[in-house]
Write a structure and sequence with these properties.
Methionyl-tRNA Fmet Formyltransferase, Chain A, domain 2, six-stranded antiparallel β-sheet, 10 helices, elongated, alpha/beta, 2 domains, 27% helix
Amino acid sequence: MKIVFMGSPDFALPSLKSLHENSDVEVVAVFSQPAKKQGRKMQLKDTVIASFAKENDIPVHTPVKLDAEQVEILEQYNADLICVVAYGLLLPESVLNVAPCINVHPSSLPRFRGAAPLQHTLIAGDKTTDMCIMAMEKGLDTGDVFKRISYELSDDTYLDTHHDYMASEGAEHLLDVVLNWDNYKDKAVKQVEDGVIYAHKIDKSTQKLDFSKTATELYNLVRGLSPVPGGIVSFEDVNYKIYKTQVILQDHSYKNGEVVFADRKNGLVVACAKDLLRLEIIQKPGKGKMNDIDLLNGLKINIGDCFD
């Protein structure tokens, strides 16, 4: 089975490795995002997928867009399948026509189509999620599903753990579909039309903790953003990153965002629309992560102060 693999971030690496290491699969080429300037020295750095391809002598292409020239290159590989995992570029119809394109999508489709399904699943506080191996078509994550596996989610699952687990599961089930393509290709199930939600890219507006929401909602928000990029709170016009919180179930009459506790015993606790939220792991601008107790040792926050 000849495969062209398209992917870019860490999430895609287990899938590429599992395909490359299987003796019944030949990864004939890899397409990935172009190298980007990173680090303090702003040096160009390949994606982890491009790096793996180079290390294993797999032809690698990093186009800015999939134009007619790239389609010609793609056609020359005579691939049986194109496997796509978090590539980051939309596939035009000309690419979709080269070979069947299948995609790894970690959500309960049609819930959370789009760029950030892992994050939005946790932000929404979902108790279950799916891994879908699906056909790619012109619509955004609208294709038929070849294989769907369901998972339970615990209330204390954070993004890093969820990311790594689903990346591993995606690799396993993608390989299964590839190796058994003749059994899967004619048995795809159409997505239902109800329950479509789009998982938009995470931006700073998503990161902002709005204390007019419930403590549980903000707890889930931070779970879905930790460790990268983290939640954001603002105090006296300074933004702080939040990486871990704790819900304190308590009826109250405080204002939204009002500091209820700020001491070594209770930590930094803020009022929400319902219940209280402890800001447990926090980061000042230009500093490393610290717990709220250490923050309070160096930052004057009083009971009754308010977060913006």
